[in-house]
């Protein structure tokens, strides 16, 4: 948040910093709820809230990965990246992600207060479908970034932020691989055959939970907060979506050119007056 406010004061509006701040706050709240649950085993509502936050928080990072991959595609392949149809597809993907989050929350909450076998059966298949969609959503940058870099370079290709496009691609691919591993683990455990509490599988252990959830999230958050400075590398000029270009507006340059032309005209007029005198 400090970086976001500092960049905002300097005229750089970088919304992903706010998203990462929200993700960090959500994880702090998640761990607080889990600590309370560990000390108060009969706090069913606390356990339910902790479970919801565990599933919902990481979606912010999924969105950031796809957003950065989209920026790379638009910069290297403007014809494809700024295509109106593709922009609609991305909006649909984000909308479906929001719907998936709502479904997960509703099913987890309602399923905790009902014993209906038919509902739990439907709940299981809906959760399996949402986990599959989240995996596909998370893996999209792994296809978009290579597509942008391997296709023949467009004559109107642009750049944005600091650093090379190769470094940006490596950062996005690294984060996407970690998130895909997490989403794949969750999908695998969701699609696995349910097991009795007396006979848990290896993925039910505490080590698996913390390694495939919080450890991966800490690595991704460290990558985007300390190691790579995304507020510098992935920043684009304000209003780029409306202009469909990442080029810096030349308004200041045009104003200075106009001022120079005006001063040249005044100078010519004074020289002409002097000559006539």
UniProtKB/TrEMBL annotation:
Transmembrane segment boundaries: 12-36, 48-68, 88-110, 130-148, 169-187, 207-227
Annotated segments matching region Disordered: 236-277
Cited InterPro entries: DUF3112
Keyword hit for NADP: no
Keyword field: Membrane, Transmembrane, Transmembrane helix
PANTHER family from the UniProt entry: INTEGRAL MEMBRANE PROTEIN (PTHR35184:SF1), YALI0C10208P (PTHR35184)
Protein name: Uncharacterized protein
């Amino acid at each position: 948040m400090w970086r976001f406010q500092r960049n905002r004061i300097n005229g750089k509006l970088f919304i992903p910093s706010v998203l990462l701040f929200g993700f960090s706050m959500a994880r702090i709240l998640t761990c607080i709820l889990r600590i309370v649950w560990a000390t108060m085993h009969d706090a069913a509502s606390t356990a339910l809230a902790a479970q919801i936050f565990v599933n919902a928080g990481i979606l912010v990072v999924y969105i950031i990965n796809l957003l950065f991959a989209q920026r790379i595609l638009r910069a290297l392949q403007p014809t494809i990246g700024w295509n109106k149809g593709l922009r609609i597809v991305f909006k649909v993907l984000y909308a479906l992600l929001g719907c998936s989050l709502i479904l997960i929350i509703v099913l987890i909450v309602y399923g905790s207060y009902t014993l209906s076998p038919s509902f739990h059966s439907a709940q299981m298949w809906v959760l399996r479908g949402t986990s599959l969609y989240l995996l596909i959503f998370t893996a999209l940058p792994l296809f978009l970034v290579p597509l942008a870099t391997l296709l023949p370079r467009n004559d109107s290709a642009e750049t944005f932020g600091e650093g090379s496009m190769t470094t940006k691609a490596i950062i996005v691919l690294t984060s996407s691989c970690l998130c895909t591993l997490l989403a794949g683990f969750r999908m695998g455990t969701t699609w696995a055959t349910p097991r009795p509490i007396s006979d848990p599988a290896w993925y039910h252990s505490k080590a698996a939970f913390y390694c495939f959830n919080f450890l991966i999230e800490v690595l991704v958050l460290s990558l985007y907060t300390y190691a790579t400075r995304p507020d510098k590398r992935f920043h684009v000029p304000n209003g780029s979506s409306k202009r469909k270009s990442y080029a810096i507006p030349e308004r200041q340059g045009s104003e200075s050119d106009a001022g120079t032309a005006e001063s040249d005209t005044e100078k010519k007029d004074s020289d002409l007056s002097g000559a006539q005198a």
